[in-house]
Automatic annotation (TrEMBL):
Role according to the record: Catalyzes the 2'-O-methylation of the ribose of cytidine 1402 (C1402) in 16S rRNA.
Limits of the RsmI HTH domain: 233-277
GO molecular function, one term: rRNA (cytosine-2'-O-)-methyltransferase activity
One CC-aspect GO term: cytoplasm
Protein name: Ribosomal RNA small subunit methyltransferase I
Gene it is expressed from: rsmI_2
Length: 287
């Protein structure tokens, strides 16, 4: 690769199944002189397996700034660098974002490759009806902060996607139940693409019992997908005023505030309706 084509490549790697790496990813890993890896010991066998001779440098959350400086210097010297994380797509609940920002600020090219991402794999199998989803990633580990985060999400009409580790799965499912109630659907996608992959779908109210019935169900890596809050239609004058304001281009929060002030209709129902309207308007624009 010449000086002019030096670039930072963002290269997704398999979540588990070694076959889940694209032809292009392999070609890039074979061509670049450097690979910045979250864990070089983890990535070295993958590179060997695909006949890649790139030199490895460590780029993890504890050395992000130093790694970014080194990568920028390599790019400035005309040497391309590929970024990989332990599994999936760099920058998605993983290191990478700061490195990308630094490389962009330094004026170098960034070339992202499509590939495995646990959230997207789980969503594709969730079969939920919502057209929109919100990717949250990891919830806070402390129970009070987690409950607060979930309260803020509780009324959104979008499918919600969380990452979770095995040692917190039971507590997190309990917190989801408290925040969202028993009726919403939960999809537990575990060990995706691996030998013990399982995808279980149930009402939130039944999830804890399902998990506790077999210790194996609590093992491995999880993506949790929760169905969105059901629409509570704001009817009557409140709903009519709200839709007029939204049609006029006001954002949902402002339309809700005004419709509530004008008609006295409940804020919660108005806001949910506004978000549903916005989601419907977005998907209509896209289709
Ligand atoms: N960057 C990765 C991606 O693109 O999905 C995510 C990395 S994040 C540090 C790790 C979390 O992703 C795990 O705790 C789990 O929630 C989820 N995850 C990764 N691999 C998974 C798998 N095979 N099955 C289910 N969840 C997985």
């Amino acid at each position: 690769m010449t000086n002019e084509s030096a670039a930072l490549y963002l290269v997704p790697t398999p979540l588990g199944h070694l076959g889940d790496i694209t032809q292009r990813a392999i070609e890039v890993l074979r061509q670049v002189p450097w690979v910045a890896a979250e864990d070089t010991r983890h990535t070295a066998p993958l590179l060997r397996h695909h006949g890649c001779n790139a030199r490895l440098l460590a780029a993890h959350r504890h050395n992000e700034e130093a790694a970014a400086q080194r990568v920028v210097a390599l790019l400035a010297a005309g040497e391309s660098v590929a970024v990989v994380v332990d599994a999936g797509t760099p920058g998605i609940s993983d290191p990478g974002a700061r490195l990308v920002a630094r490389v962009r600020a330094a004026g170098h090219r960034i070339i992202p490759l499509p590939g495995p991402c646990a959230a997207i794999v789980a969503l594709s199998a969730a079969g939920l009806s919502e057209a929109q989803f919100l990717f949250y990633g990891f919830l806070p580990a402390k129970s009070g902060q987690r409950a607060q985060a979930l309260r803020e999400l509780a009324e959104l009409p979008y499918a919600l996607v969380f990452y979770e580790a095995p040692h917190r799965i039971v507590d997190t499912v309990a917190a989801l139940l408290v925040a969202f109630g028993a009726q919403r659907t939960l999809v537990l996608a575990r060990e995706l693409t691996k030998l013990f992959e399982s995808i279980h779908c149930c009402p939130l109210g039944e999830a804890a019992a399902w998990l506790l019935a077999d210790a194996n169900r609590q093992r491995g890596e999880f993506v949790l997908v929760v169905s969105g809050a059901p629409a509570v239609a704001a009817s009557g004058e409140g709903g009519r005023v709200l839709r007029l304001l939204l049609d006029d281009g006001l954002p949902p929060s402002q339309a809700t505030r005004l419709a509530h002030a004008i008609t006295g209709a409940g804020r919660k129902a108005l806001y949910q309706e506004a978000l549903s309207w916005q989601a419907g308007a977005t998907s209509t624009r896209q289709s």
